Amino acid sequence: MNDPKTPARRGRKTAEKPQLTRDNWLDAAAGEIAAGGFGHVRVLTLAKQLGVTRGSFYWHFKDHEDLVISFLNRWRERRLKEMEYWKPQGGEVEEELRRILEVLLTDASRHMRRLKVELAVRDFARRHDYAAEIVAEVDAARVSQNCTLFQRLSSDPQKTKDLALLMYVATIGSQVVLTGRGGDDDAIRRIEDLMERVVLGLRDDQ
Q1: 200 to 76, 97, 163: CA distances (angstroms)
Q2: 80 in helix, strand or coil?
Q3: Residue 191: domain span
């Protein structure tokens, strides 16, 4: 029989705050980086956003630099993983090129935060050696994937690399221009047409 002086237990109905993960902290950091770059990332600010103490941060990371390195590693992994969505599938070159451009430009134009983070990472790479290595690795992987498509347009290895680099630089530049311009499908189509004509116009049989 329960002691009348003792409050009856209510079982475990009291809502407990879910345990934060490293990804929770990295997601919060991504928001700060998108808003103001890596210099905007402060442990105390992130802790307040997540509603926890700084002790929670040190459970997951050794220090601020560990957070930055972890963020860069995750950024690289995600950028390499998403390349699967625009990997050449072995179809007709013209169709493959159109499909890849559509994925890269249409998808990017709808994700302003992703582009802001990428630009912040690239800016940070100018003064942080490890960030520079990460950016170089992602760039090399993207250009290399372009090469697998353009090898079918030219038997000249240097020309293939030039075509791949041209498409990459043009795509990144187009993403910067298009991101946030919701509903401007006509602009996306025009850029796709221009890039397709330029690239296909440089193949060996032209």
Answers
A1: 30, 9, 9
A2: helix
A3: 22-200
Dihedral sign of CA atoms 113, 118, 123, 128 in order: positive
> CA angle 98-99-101, nearest 5°?
65
Distances from the Cα of 87 to the Cαs of 30, 84, 149, in angstroms? 26, 5, 9
Residue 29 within a domain: yes
Residue 33: inside a domain: yes
What stretch of H or E contains 149?
Answer: helix 129-150
| Structural domain count, the chain | 1
Q: What six digits make up the tokens of 37?
A: 């770059």
CATH number of residue 42's parent domain: 1.10.357.10
Which two structure tokens, joined as six digits, stand for 182? Answer: 């919701």
Are 32 and 41 in contact by the 8 Å Cβ rule? The answer is yes
**Which positions ≥6 away from 74 have C-beta within 8 Å?**
23, 26
Residue pLDDT, tens place only, 68-88: 999 999 999 999 999 988 888
Contact 108, 167 (CB under 8 A): no
Q: Which two tokens stand for residue 161?
A: 């690399």
Whole-model pTM: value is 0.81
Furthest C-alpha separation in the chain: 93
